[in-house]
Amino acid sequence: MAPAPPVRPPRLASWLVGLFAAGERAASIEGDLLEEFSELVSRSGVGPARRWYWRQSVKTAAALAGCGFRAAPWSTLAVALAGYLLFAAAASLPERVTVAVLQAGWHDVTPYYTWRQAQNYLFWLNNGVWIGRLLLPLLVGCAVAAVAKGRELATTLALCAVNGVATGLEILLLSAGHAPEYPFFLPLLLVQFANSVLMVTGGVITREIRSIRPRRVARG
Fold it and tell me: What's the rounded Cα separation, in Å, for the pair 116 and 190?
């Protein structure tokens, strides 16, 4: 009877650690975690070992993010601030680009739209603006991560922190003239949370693109 294949740790957890560590350091950390995981599997079983691996991976990723920030705090914060200023300056860009593209495509249409033409125009206008608003924080996250080589995730997380502080200040300014139940606050928080998630996603994309070549070299 063939021996059972070795139990592997959760791939997503291993990938999470690899996002914050690079090169030999990532291999060393993953090797240590794998050794402990294998011993825990033999002692306590697969389920507890996987839960332990997840906890350790999250703790390790958080520690690595902190180390990445402490290694160059001022430059990391400067890049994050520059990224936020870029994001704020380009906030109206999705609307302007969408309107310009639609006007270029509809320049030969009579200004007196039919009902169907008006519906089509509004459909593409609304969807174009929403797509642009999704792409903008993603691209800003990619740009910030591209500048902060080796600290992609730490810098995009700092960018999210700056975005959160700016959102808090905006809410305080708005609440100065409105009641606390002012209904604009919740949509604002949801939008800014989505922006932060997309910024981090941009950092992850940049980090993964940069790691493709080292992985190929290591395998070759």
Answer: 33
- Domain range summary for the chain, segments of one domain joined by +: 1-71, 72-219
Task: Report how far residue 38's alpha carbon sits from residue 98's, in angstroms, rounded to the nearest whole number.
Answer: 54
CA distance 69 to 77: 8
Tokens for 11?
């791939």
| Distance from the Cα of residue 112 to its chain's centroid | 43
Give the type of residue at 42: S
Nearest by Cα to 197 from 146, 140, 131, 148: 140
What predicted TM-score, i.e. pTM, was given to this entire model? 0.82
What does the pLDDT look like over 104-118, one tens digit per residue?
A: 766 555 555 666 767
pLDDT tens-digit profile of 34-65? 889 888 888 888 888 899 999 999 999 888 88
Residue 152 CB partners (closer than 8 Å, separation 6+): 145, 146, 203, 204, 206, 207, 210
| Token pair recorded at residue 171 | 């809410």
Separation of alpha carbons 74 and 88, rounded Å: 21
